[in-house]
Amino acid sequence: MVRLRQVVLVARDLEPVVATLRARLELGEPFRDPAVAAFGLQNAVMALGDTFIEVVSPITPGTAAGRHLDRRGGDGGYMVMFELDDVEGARRRAAAVGIREVFAVELPDIVDVHLHPRDIGGAIVALDRPEPPGAWRWGGPAWEQAVPAHAPGGATGVTLQAADAVGTAARWAHVLGAPVVEDGRTVKLERDGAVRFTHPPGEHGDGIVAFELAVTPDIAARETSVEIGSVRLALRAT
Question: Which one in 10, 40, 74, 168 has a CA-CA gap of 20 to 30 Å to 55?
Answer without folding.
Answer: 168
